[in-house]
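Re-running Long-chain acyl-CoA synthetase to confirm reproducibility after the cluster update. Everything else is unchanged from the original entry.
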Amino acid sequence: MTISTPRPWLASYADGVPVELELPRGSLYDLVEASIAEFPDNAALEFFGRETTYAEMGLQIGRAAEGLRLLGVQKGDTVALVLPNCPQHIVAFYAVLRIGAIVVEHNPLYTPRELRHQFEDHAAKVVIAWNNVVGTIQAFPADVAVDTIISVDVTRAMPFATRALLRLPISKARDSRKALTANVRGTVVWEELLKSAPIKPEIVRPDASDVALIQYTSGTTGSPKGAILTHLNLTTNAAQARAWVPTVTRGEGCVVYAVLPMFHAYGLTLCLTFAMSMGARLVLFPKFDPDLVLAVARKRPATFLPAVPPIYQRLQAAANEKGVSLQGIQISISGAMPLSASVVEPWEKETGGYLVEGYGLSETSPVLMANPVGPTRVAGTVGLPLPNTEIRVVDPENPTVDRAPGDEGELIVRGPQVFSGYWKKPEETAAVFVPTSDDGADWFRTGDIVTVDEAGFVRIVDRIKEIIITGGFNVAPSEVEDTLRAHPDVSDVAVVGLPSAHSGEDVVAAVVLVDGSKLDEEAIRDFARSNLAAYKVPRRVYQLDELPRSLIGKVLRREVREKLTAEAAD
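Result of re-run:
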């Protein structure tokens, strides 16, 4: 790869981090296959204490891949995954890729309307789904109906003793069982898929240039769309992550906690692909539960813990309360929202390791930059571009014009981890790329306003895009607004994000009511809850007489945000 722009940040790289990488030549499947060959007897996965070795995982991937092929899945087909963190998720992911098909990840907590929107877009005819969401998929209308649902009971991956406890005739066990699984009909059971013979080596395999994943994102314009990521995009980002932490050894000595959901780009790369490329032990948690994490930490601290600031805070509070030591957690990477010194300092004191902030987007696989894991890190910044990554700061109104060093401007980037475009959306794709003036790739517009200091450290100042980031998830204001406008008491609405000490931003709605109506905040929130995932539901609802608008009638969300910030302070 030819780098044609200045890279002042290279001098601040931590010891052992290369300034440039040779790009991977294989696929994501080649990546996991190499770890299977090198570490066959090592634990690859741990789930509620039950271990799966790399050899066992490889056999399951091969059987599931053949099972999918026999169901008619071919190279280039889309296969939807609607799964929590569980061993079946990893096996399904790599099985789909083994036959050259395309994974489409979904949040299993999405409402029927949200899932349907994405299925309408990617048109997958085969879906591998958690039992608890099978009913939602089966209820899709005929025009988006899938041909085959492969149902997954996550409890089947648990130790026998844990499964036995879930069957006890007591209310706590019944509640836990209901949260983890459900009775379903009319599906292909996951275990049936694994009865297939392992796929033969000569069966078609994916190439580095093939599409591996469609990752849905709110993007930079607010409408959810699928970012197309190739095997090269994702293998490169895993390699960049490995290069950034040269002190972490491959194999049994590497322990990664998957507390982030793997359907999210952040969790997918740092838990699912990076961990497997390291030959690591990946400890899977279906959701973040401090008690479950601490139970593992007592026996085997994480070498590498990617998370978001609220998780670090809750985990440390629980550890202090229960007297559990967090010593031994070597490297913690925070992303998706700002990381404050009030989180970093006590965490590093408690663990004896590093907690550094990174930055990325779904469109960039997702990691673009991170603070050095070492004394050169700079608190309050998102760090330095990863190897093979170029950045510029430009005029947001004319992104072909560079801003002076140190001045605010829009961050544009390019590198081998940057996506090729949005699924079936050529106009939206064209809108986020700036043509290059050299022989390199076009530049991707991040939509973030930044400053870059003399050493190359990047500080996020503001976002051009109005996407709300809450708890590490992107929320498109327009989607929430469209939902709330259907409420009989709401005449107009604007949705914005307000700062939150716990989740980065809170989703907040300003509503104009129909004449004669009175504000019933809980009723509006309940209405939203029936149509939106929980993290998209407004935490607060304010009443305004009217919404500020531009001369052409566009709602000025920035003014709404300023007004609500003032009201919240009163």
